[in-house]
Each structure stands twice: as structure tokens, then as C-alpha cells.
Design a protein that fits this description.
The complex is a heterodimer of chains A (149) and B (148). Chain A is 5% helix and 38% strand. With 149 residues, chain A is mainly β. Chain B is an all-beta fold and 148 residues long. Chain B has one domain (6-137). Chain B has one helix spanning 138-141, and strands spanning 6-13, 23-26, 36-44, 67-73, 78-84, 98-114, 125-134. In chain B, strands 1, 2, 3, 4, 5, 6 and 7 form a 7-stranded antiparallel beta sheet that branches. In chain B, strand 4 and strand 5 form a beta hairpin. The longest helix of chain B is centred in the last third of the chain and has 4 residues, at 138-141. Chain B is globular and about 45 Å long. The two termini of chain B are 14 Å apart. The mean pLDDT of chain B is 94. The chains are: A mainly beta (149), B mainly beta (148). At the A-B interface, strand 7 of A face strand 1 of B. Strand 7 of chain A pairs parallel with strand 1 (6-13) of chain B.
């Protein structure tokens, strides 16, 4: 049985910069646009050039600054978890392993987790356990993809 | 896969010495996971999370085949009995998480069993993601899980 998930081709992304090597919480930037919609899936993009995923982007909000996407095989990716709060301030996801949300590999067949609900971005955060080494000391950025209807 | 309404990551630490074969270790009490219908679960290993949120090393990928999980409902029935944890890691089963016919979980009596400790070290943590719906929200979402 295939389940009863929603199908959508609409996706919005949130960038979460990690600009220090300290453990702790890094809150998602507030995004009222995403909060309007019902989320039906969640994935994360990691820098994995061998798998064809992106490694750097120039987001509109950053002007001409290129941001570096968190690498797939990095301690940062393996020590990070995502906590999402819903619109009613209850916990939707608690410490969901970020790397488990990375779906662009042959083992997971590009499947995404069918997370369902409306989120509150300002209360949600990425939590890092233990100190991490950033590439060349520069900031790295998590790239979260929210599929919505 | 069914929609995931809520998710909570739990952690079982094996203790300061390597656990012996045949050891059962109970889940801790998580207030968030009282009075819930469990709808699915997933195990992860060190390739996905190397350090747990509590700062402990996570059990290695070759440690999961030596671990099973037993989940009890509120009537002390072993609804899931000795389920292999390796099979519950989505990366081993084409990205699927294991969704189950929902039942009211009694987490504090549920446990994991160490069947083969050869790849499990002292102070390792086993992390388990529970997907659930709280009792008060059940009427709102139960249609997702109705038998077809």
C-alpha cells in the first residue's frame, strides 16, 4: 500500500546560516510566506557534488554573496537536528536528524518525509550537539526545502 | 507512507559499560510521548547522526543489526515484538519509514533488546524517532489511518 500522502510540485526553501563553531540553537529566519501554507513534505539539500546536488548558491536576500551549502559528509551535517514548531506553538518535530532528511542518494530513492502541518518559523531551530568545524572558517548554510499545498 | 503529524526523537544510552547480550533497556519517560497514538518509528545510526542531542556517540551502522525493539500498548500488550532496528532505518529500506496501525503507546514499558553487542560500545546511544498523534488530536487525524 502506498499510503495517502499529498502530491505537490510546490516548494519553498529556507536558508539557515551557521556562522559559528559553537554548539547550540540556530533559529530559522522568520518566513511569513511559508507559514501561510500547509506543509506536506520536508527535505534538506546538502553539498554533494558527486550526487549532483548544489554546493553553492547566490540567494536573492544575500545580494551578490555566494553562500556555501553544508557538506554531506561533514560533522556539521551529522551533529545537527531540526526542531519545528507548529502554528499553535506545539512541537511538530523534535530533534529530527537533519542528515536523515537528505534524500538525494541512491539508498533513499529521493523519497521525502511526509511531514504534515503548518509551521511557525520564528520558534523553529536547528540544534547542533558538540563543536563543529566549518569549512575554512567561513559560514555554511542549511538549505531546507518545504513542500506545500 | 502515511503523513507524519508529530515526530519526537528519543535516546537510549546503553550505560557506562558495554551491555551484555540479552540485555533489555527500557525507554525513559518523555512527557511529550504520554497519551499518544504511535503511527510509525525510525532508527538512525552514526552515519546520519554521529553525536546525539545529549552529546553521546550514536551506535554505528553495523551495531543496529544486533538490536531489536519491543513496543507495548497501554494494556501491556507487546504490539511490536522484537522488531529488528536495522529494518527501521529508512536508509536501509529505500527511504521508507515504518508506519504501523496506530495504537496507544506505553513508552516506559517499551524497550530495546541487545542481541549482539559486538559492535556496540559502552556509553553509546541508540536514537529512535517516534511519529505520533496526541490523544487530543486523534479525532482530527484518525482518518489518515483508517483501514481501506
Amino acid at each position: 500500500m502506498l499510503g495517502n500522502n499529498q502530491t505537490t510540485n510546490k516548494v519553498k526553501s529556507i536558508l539557515v546560516p551557521i556562522n559559528g563553531d559553537a554548539a547550540g540553537r540556530y533559529f530559522l529566519p522568520e518566513n511569513p510566506e511559508i507559514e501561510k501554507y500547509t506543509i506536506v513534505g520536508l527535505s534538506v539539500s546538502l553539498s554533494a557534488p558527486n550526487l549532483g546536488d548544489i554546493s553553492r548558491i547566490t540567494p536573492y536576500t544575500e545580494g551578490n554573496n555566494v553562500v556555501r551549502i553544508v557538506r554531506e559528509n561533514s560533522s556539521l551535517a551529522e551533529r545537527s537536528t531540526l526542531t519545528l514548531y507548529s502554528k499553535d506553538k506545539s512541537i511538530l518535530l523534535y530533534n529530527f536528524p537533519i542528515k536523515a532528511l537528505f534524500n538525494r542518494n541512491s539508498a533513499t530513492n529521493n523519497r521525502i518525509y511526509p511531514i504534515t502541518g503548518k509551521i511557525s518559523t520564528r520558534n523553529s531551530y536547528i540544534s547542533i550537539s558538540g563543536r563543529i568545524a566549518l569549512l575554512s572558517g567561513t559560514a555554511e548554510t542549511f538549505f531546507l526545502n518545504f513542500f506545500y499545498i | 507512507m502515511k503523513p507524519i503529524v508529530r515526530s519526537y526523537l528519543t535516546e537510549i544510552n546503553v550505560g557506562t559499560t558495554q551491555p551484555g547480550n540479552g540485555t533489555n533497556i527500557n525507554f525513559k519517560d518523555y512527557p511529550q510521548l504520554r497519551d499518544i497514538y504511535i503511527t510509525g518509528f525510525a532508527f538512525y545510526d552514526a552515519t546520519q547522526v554521529s553525536v546525539s542531542p545529549a552529546g553521546k556517540a550514536v551506535v554505528a551502522a553495523n551495531g543496529l543489526p544486533g538490536i531489536t525493539v519491543t513496543l507495548l500498548d497501554i494494556y501491556n500488550m507487546e504490539i511490536i515484538y522484537q522488531y529488528p532496528s536495522y529494518d527501521a532505518n529508512p536508509i536501509n529500506v529505500s527511504g521508507f519509514y515504518r508506519d504501523i496501525n496506530p495504537f496507544q503507546l506505553q513508552l516506559t514499558k517499551s524497550y530495546i533488546s541487545i542481541l549482539d553487542n559486538s559492535n556496540i560500545a559502552a556509553d553509546d546511544s541508540i536514537i529512535v524517532n517516534f511519529f505520533y498523534i496526541s490523544l487530543k488530536d486523534w479525532s482530527k487525524y484518525s482518518a489518515y489511518y483508517a483501514r481501506k
